[in-house]
Amino acid sequence: MSLLIPEVGLLFWMTLSFGVVFFILAKFAFPVISQGVEKRNRYIHDSLDAAREAEAKLATLSQQAEALMEQAREERKALLEEAAETKKRIEMEARESALAEVGQLKNKALAEIEESKRRALTEIKDQIVDLSVKIAGKVVSEELAGDKKQKELIDRLLKEEVIYKS
Questions:
Q1: Are the CB atoms for 56 and 63 separated by under 8 Å?
Q2: pLDDT digits 0-9 by tens, 97-125
Q3: In angstroms, rounded to a whole number, what is the distance separating the alpha carbons of residues 99 and 136?
Q4: Alpha helices in the chain (DSSP H)
Q5: pTM of this prediction?
Q6: What are the domain boundaries of the chain?
Q7: Cα–Cα distance, 100 to 94 (Å, whole number)
Q8: Are 115 and 107 in contact (CB under 8 A)?
Q9: How many CB atoms lie under 10 A from the CB of residue 92?
Q10: Which of 2, 82, 123, 164 has its CA at 20 to 30 Å from residue 97's CA atom?
């Protein structure tokens, strides 16, 4: 049973070898291991900080992108409104121009009609004058023998004149 109950000498040497190994580990290995753990801890901490910064930048960029999108929507809306106003203005200008042109054409047509009417009346008057001159010539050239024939001619001409005037 010596395996279960160690002797005093074995305990001494085991304690001494444990102390030496612990001293060597404490002197050389633990500082290196502590530095590695500390270095790893700093790396993880720096990575977390960088991730937080990236997340904050991403949120800022997202807000900026949303603001740009809103601005683009507003500009598009303004452009559409301006285009609609321009369309209405052009339509009104075209309508006013067309109405003015129609008015000018109407006035021109009325002036031409008046001119044609005036020429027609002048022509009719000229024909009447020519006809009157011919009739007067025939009357003068006709031989009037007596007062009775002259009175008949005058009565007939007066009746014709009265008929034409009415």
A1: no
A2: 999 999 999 999 999 999 999 999 888 88
A3: 54
A4: 8-24, 30-141, 147-165
A5: 0.41
A6: 8-165
A7: 10
A8: no
A9: 10
A10: 82
